[in-house]
Amino acid sequence: MEIREIKEQEKEKFNKTVGHPVQSWEWGEFRQTHGNKILRLGLFDKGRLKEGFQLTIHGIPKTNFRVAMFTQGPEPSAATLKGLKEFAQKENLVFVRIEPAVVSSPKLESLITKNNLKPSRPFFNKSTYLIDLTKSEKELLFSMHSKTRYNIRLAERHGVEVIEDNSTKAFGKYLELMDQTTTRQKYYAHTEKYHRLMWQTLNPAGIAHLLVTKYKGKILNTWILFIWHNHLYYPYGASSEEHREVMASYAAMWGAIKFGKANNLKTFDLWGADDTKGYTRFKEGFGGKKVEFAGTWDLIINPTVYLLYRIAEELRWKALKLKTRIFPFHSSFRAQD
């Protein structure tokens, strides 16, 4: 087994091996336009690419040190960790944060212990809901909470419609509603620039799709969905405060499910579940299977700097929480990166 950097001409082979859109070549291109360095590595067996993985490199402000994020990748192996250590040392990395899109297992737990990986702050939610799109619409509706089915039918009676619209005008509406949503719900989101760059890269590649939900010609919801291999993902959504009585969000989710089935996809990943958040109750009502991943782990390269980094990281998060309690909320969506 050999681990080396992936070459430009190996893009197609690389994409065939990676199992999540944020591991795709195109996602890496987007992150590069956003200012991040990308490191693409491959695990080769007798010259054949068996596994690809993509890391984003982030500088630590006012230092020469850097860290790497390896999110939503495959289950790491001993060979993978060995290769990551070697490349991390070359890149002057303090640590590599590993967050595989797999459930835990005794084998993985043993590997984590042997390599002294440390539990860390998650990048993605540890849990998500998966909806089986191979089921019929009747079966899917039957598996939902009764209140969810009722709200879907209520939206239908109101004439709410859900369509795919990838036009510039529709994307502009998505940005407008995202600004409103982050302000209304008081959470910090990626900036407008981030969303524009993401869309400009992933939509032409056929990965990102925009679903709009309309009531009497007015757009109430905009959702960006990702298609990767046989799977559908729901990473971003925005909504209007208007006409909440027509249950546009329920129509949007049902429309997304039907969109996935129309594209012959197998599963719909709702991109996160957090029992402390209201959106989780909404997602739960659609009858998906809750899956808990193996967690987030740091592969430490420079122990001394790592300790200082983790202390600073915890202080930063505590400061952000304190800020939201003391000062009025101001959306960061329109901020410039």
List the SSEs and their pairings:
Elements: E1 2-5, H1 11-17, H2 25-33, E2 37-45, E3 48-59, E4 66-71, H3 78-90, E5 93-99, H4 106-114, E6 118-119, E7 127-132, H5 137-143, H6 146-157, E8 161-164, H7 168-185, H8 192-202, E9 208-215, E10 218-228, E11 231-239, H9 248-262, E12 267-269, H10 278-284, E13 289-292, E14 297-300, H11 303-326
Parallel strand pairs: 4-5, 11-12
Antiparallel strand pairs: 1-2, 2-3, 3-4, 5-14, 6-14, 7-12, 7-13, 8-9, 9-10, 10-11
Domain BioF2-like acetyltransferase: 147-275
Protein name: BioF2-like acetyltransferase domain-containing protein
Organism: Candidatus Blackburnbacteria bacterium RIFCSPLOWO2_01_FULL_40_20
Key phrases:
FEMABX; acyltransferase; 337 residues; Aminopeptidase; 2 domains; seven-stranded mixed sheet; cell wall biogenesis/degradation; alpha+beta
Question: Total number of helical segments?
Answer: 11
CATH superfamily of the largest domain: Gcn5-related N-acetyltransferase (GNAT)
Largest β-sheet summary: 7 strands, mixed
Spatial sequence of strands, sheet with the most strands: 1-2-3-4-5-14-6
Q: How far do the termini sit from each other?
A: 40 Å
Helix and strand content put the structural class at: alpha+beta
Counted beta strands: 14
Shape call: globular
Mean pLDDT: 93
Please give the oligomerization state of what you see. single chain
Task: Report the portion of residues in β strands.
Answer: 25-35%
Helix content: 25-40%
* SSE string, helices as H and strands as E: EHHEEEHEHEEHHEHHEEEHEHEEH
What is the top-level CATH class of the largest domain?
Answer: Alpha Beta
